[in-house]
């Protein structure tokens, strides 16, 4: 059963590959989303990276607030404390 997803969004400039695949100019601004989905035992089920031309997409992000004593899985699959994040 899928339990938790974590997504990180950052800005990046389009590489040669990005420019060709996304039909944008080299160096164009992109939104890059890295997502990790875990099951109820904290095992990583899926890890993806998606690249979106910034002039064509906007992302809506929802999240749950967790207490500091709960653990979560970071992008690398390691457990991290909920405190300070």
Description:
The protein is mainly beta and 85 residues long. It has 1 helix and 5 strands. The model is unreliable at 79-85 (pLDDT under 50). A 3-stranded antiparallel sheet has the order 1-2-3, with no helix packed on it. It has one helix at 16-22, and strands at residues 2-13, 29-39, 44-53, 71-73, 79-81. The longest helix has 7 residues, at 16-22. Helix content is 8%, strand content 46%. It has a single domain (2-81), classed as 3-Layer(aba) Sandwich (Chorismate lyase), CATH 3.40.1410.10.
What are the main properties of this structure?
Chorismate lyase, three-stranded antiparallel sheet, single chain, two-stranded antiparallel sheet, 46% strand, 85 residues, 8% helix, elongated, 5 strands, mainly beta
Précis, in short:
The chain is mostly beta strands and 85 residues long. It has one helix and five strands, in the order βαββββ. It has a single domain (2-81), classed as 3-Layer(aba) Sandwich (Chorismate lyase).
């Amino acid at each position: 059963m899928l339990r938790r997803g974590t997504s990180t969004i950052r800005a990046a400039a389009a590489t040669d590959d990005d420019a060709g695949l996304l039909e944008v100019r080299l160096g164009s601004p992109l939104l890059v989303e890295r997502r990790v989905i875990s099951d109820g035992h904290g095992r990583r089920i899926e890890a993806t990276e998606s690249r979106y031309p910034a002039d064509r997409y906007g992302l809506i992000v929802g999240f749950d607030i967790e207490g500091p004593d709960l653990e979560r899985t970071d992008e690398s699959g390691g457990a991290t404390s909920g405190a300070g994040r």
